[in-house]
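May I ask for a protein sequence together with how it folds?
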Amino acid sequence: MLARGVPLKVVSEILGHSSIVITGDVYGYVSPDVSREALATLSAVLNRPAPRMVVKNGGQTAPDNSRARSRSPGIGP
């Protein structure tokens, strides 16, 4: 239900959980597809291209920083 956009509160109530924390802890993992869709939505709102996502150990998704450049000026001499 969460992957199809049903709000966490509604899922929690349907399952009879006393708190959305329980529902979120048990079922609230973020699939790679959901993560990509969320980033695409945020990027559209910010009018920027969506970053590439990679799947790491355990199925967690993270930004692909292999092409990223640092925006900080660094430490000078």
